[in-house]
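worker-03 picked up job from queue 'complexes'. Input manifest follows; two sequence lines, order preserved.
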Amino acid sequence: MSRGVFLESTLRGFSNALSRALVSEYVSAQPGLLQKFDPRVRVVGIFALVLAVVICRRLEVITGLLLFAIILAIVSRVSLASLAKRVWLIVLGFTGLIALPALFITPGDPLLALPWSLTISAQGLRTALLLILRVETAVTLTTILVLCTPWTHILKALRSLGLPAEVITMAAMTHRYVFLLIGTANQMFESRQSRTVGKLSGSQQRSMAGRTAGVLLSKSMDLSYDVYLAMMSRGFRGDIRLLTDFRLRLRDYMGLMAFLFVGVTAIWMGR
Amino acid sequence: MHIPDGYLSPSTCAALYALATAGWYTALKRIKRLLATRTIPLISVFAAFSFVVMMFNVPLPGGTTGHAVGVTVASIVLGPWGSILSISIALSLQALFFGDGGITTLGANCFNMAIVGSFVAYGVYTLIASKTELTARRRVLAAAIAGYVSINTSALLTAFEFGIQPSLFHDASGTPLYAPYPLHVAIPAMMIGHLTLAGLAEAVISAGMISYLQRADIGLLRGGAISTPEPSFVPARSTSRVWLAIALMMFLTPIGILAAGSAWGEWTPAELSAQASGNHAPAGLEKIASLWTAPFPGYAPSFVRNPAFGYFLSALFGVGLLLLASLVVKSFAAKGRRPELRS
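worker-03 finished. Artifact:
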């Protein structure tokens, strides 16, 4: 009895997002190494490493950066099993699938001959490995940053790096209301699922998806007006002031130097 | 279509960041000019809505499902500039918080989906919907086509960005350093999936939502939930300036004493007689001049000796009277108007 694949799969997506947020909240409160640094150091340091990953052209150096990311994850109390499940396998599945044909269709020196006149070229193998390793390393680094830093701290760090206050405020509010709207959509889907008996036709499912999204839009607009009134009642007049109470200590300067040193060395070695 | 880090070269990322920054800057400027306070919660909650809609598994013909971006509905409800900001914030949140799309490629993703996507969706929808009624079936079709065309345009751009990588960025041995497929492979590979799945998902969700809004919340289809200035904010700053100007003018009123003679056309019958070289003032004027005696003749109450202070007092009295009159008119006007709950 199928009640509509999209109901179940969308509900699964919602619960995954919520569980990811909970994991992030738990890990960011752990006494790990990355958590000890000022959020600005974390953001600048990790962004520098991601940039180094993208600029590097040598496989060995990118592998070195991946190892550095794994060590950073361990000392920051990020579970490697969770990283493997949430990042490495997913990236391998997605980017691996995209990179696979490159093994055979990239012209170059033949490396290995396979049945059905397929040949893996040295250049094909290298480009596929470059792509997979780059994506794995960059997503690992970004995931470590997000897991170890509360969203509000990331935004404050971005503000102190020069992003407009309006953008930061909107991103912070979006993050807050994403979870509220996920909860609302979750309830709508669950209540629809509980009332669904038998099989839904394709057109019924499409119509249901459109209606649900429409109701969610109406609710979102009402919510935005409520938020607006709440802001106005508290005296909001369009001027945004964000509290940035971060203070750089010696440890932070040393951490920043270490991140930049690794990044610059990787770029230099990976030319 | 969310390009992760590592697929595009640093120079491609930088160029697309520059293009996206120009789009974000203009959008922010335009939106701020339209409406300041209302913008922030509206764009934020709409971005949250777009984020959640991106998580919907949209059922497609053939039994499979696909994900929509929600850029079409955002363009229709908020207009293209509002849509650029909302979708960009949703994409940034996806990239940073959920690792869907990269940091170095955020500019590219926002340029492809939020900026180009919004303009294409808005343009196609406006072109097909034309000036039809908000409840017309044609608008549902227009939204579906706009969604389909917009997603496929974004996909084509993405494919182009992928396709130029191997020819521009490779090492001495010919190994592509970033996305490995040339244009003749990247474009068909990308477009097959978007012409059949992702484009349809956007078309289905856009048409479904427009059809629902036509029946349940048609106000949102008027286009430009943020195109009307919010009266409650705009005066907040301008009134303080007006008050300051009024106060300054009140203090400056005694300057009027310095001017010699009476203002042109404000003569008394006696002054007019003197000006007319001994002739009498018109008889009609003398007759009606005595009908009304001002409470503060010569801009000074009779009990005030200092003329400058008298001028100031008159200004204070005059402004007070005007304010009182405007309040009375405002309260009468407000009685006939229902409060508007949605901008």
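worker-03 released lock.
Chain A is about 75% helix and 5% strand.
The longest strand of chain A covers residues 110-114.
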